[in-house]
Amino acid sequence: MTALRNYEMSFDEFQNQSRLYVIGALEPEELEAFEQARRDFGQKAEDFIGECYSMHEAFALSLRPAKSSDALKDRLMSMVRNRQKT
Amino acid sequence: MAIDFSAATGAPDEAGETRNVRLPAAAPVLEPGAPTDLELMHGVQAEDPEALSALYDRYNGIIKALILRVIHNEAEADDLLQEIFMEIWNQAKNFSAQKGKPLGWMVTLARRRAIDGLRKKQAYARAGERLQTETEQQPDAWVHNATEEEISFSDTRVLVRRVINTLPVAQQEAINFAFFRGMSQREIAAKTNTPLGTVKTRLELGLKKIYDGLKELRDEL
How far apart are CA A3 and CA B195, in angstroms? Predict the structure, then answer.
């Protein structure tokens, strides 16, 4: 634990960890140091993490869209409108 | 296992550098005068069902593809798609444009729900065997003839895939397991019979290349 507390992560390392973090691939034992570095780097860290989330969008856009039925949309919109009435 | 980011030709070896690719555009092209995603999301926040309907028309194909990539079951994917759009409707107030784009927010939400769904299934099934079988049998299960919607996204898909396809297959595979299966580094190491440190390196290198490639793409706009 002491070693963890004394370890200072560089911003380059933080960037690597952030890219793992946004896809949920950081191991539990890496999270503590990551969260500490996140606090240390402040807004700069938050901005970078926000940018990393754009990878989610890119991964989804890399897929070929799938077809779904019109009935599914009808059901969804019916649920939405019913919820509005209540 | 080559993954379905694919259509790769001649992926570089693991130590290979990202190829210098020029990528003109990242976002789906909208019809002139069509509301932006942000305008639609503001409409959803204002509880306008037509805004949700338009967002659904624009993105249901991508969101369903993402769900299918995780759970590989058409009926379950339809159920989840409906639940996710209801959640978008119910949670829209939590969306903040300062933190990212509407599609990114929707994808993050959808991925989380799909992986939750997968984990619930795994609690009842021998997940490893089932996943292996499904992965082998259905890599292209959602491939179908091009629709108008698909065509409007096809340029974007090609560009994003071009970035992803510059990665060595081992890096693509590690990212696939982490992003689409929600697997930890240890789980990937066990599944691929690869040392944990190697998995970590593959993920770090692969994600950095994708991040840099996407940044280059945005910078060129």
Answer: 24
C-alpha distances out from residue B14 to A2, B38, B173, B197, B205, Å: 35, 39, 12, 14, 9
- Count, residues in chain B: 221
Spatial contact of B6 and B173, defined as CB atoms under 8 Å apart: no
Instruction: Output the pLDDT for position B109.
Output: 94
pLDDT at B136: 45
pLDDT in tens, A21-53: 999 999 999 999 999 999 999 999 999 998 898
> How many Å apart are CA B37 and CA B34, to the nearest integer?
9
Q: Evaluate whether B174 touches B203 at the Cβ level (below 8 Å).
A: yes
> Cβ separation of A23 and B185 shorter than 8 Å?
no
The pLDDT of residue B210 is above 60: yes
Test mutation, A31, A63, A80, A86, chain B, max B CBs within 10 A: A63
Residue whose token pair is 């996407």? B214
| Residue partners of B141: CB distance under 8 A and separation at least 6 | B68, B72, B74
DSSP B11: P
Nearest-neighbour CA in chain A from B126: distance (Å): 23
> What values do phi and psi take at B169, rounded to 5?
-55, -40
Tell me if B161 and A62 make a contact (CB, 8 A cut-off): yes
CA distance linking residue A54 with residue B162, whole number of Å? 16
